[in-house]
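Hi Y.,

Following your request, here is the sequence exactly as I used it, all 65 residues.
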Amino acid sequence: MTLTPSVESWSSEVPEQAKQVEAAIPLGRLDKPEDLANAAVWLCSGKAGYITGINLAVDGGQTAQ
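Below is the corresponding structure, written out as tokens. Let me know if you'd prefer a different format.
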């Protein structure tokens, strides 16, 4: 779940649910738009130049559980 203005609003309306969601994420926080942007920048960079196909989970470790 990406921390957007609408998610921030939801979090303030139902703080207990928001805490439960965050607790289920191994890194302990929601992802920020910058987290997704950084992954995209890396994929577009020369450092990912030999990657031709990938499923990149930017999810704070949820899929690794």
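The chain has a mean pLDDT of 96.

Thanks again,
Q.
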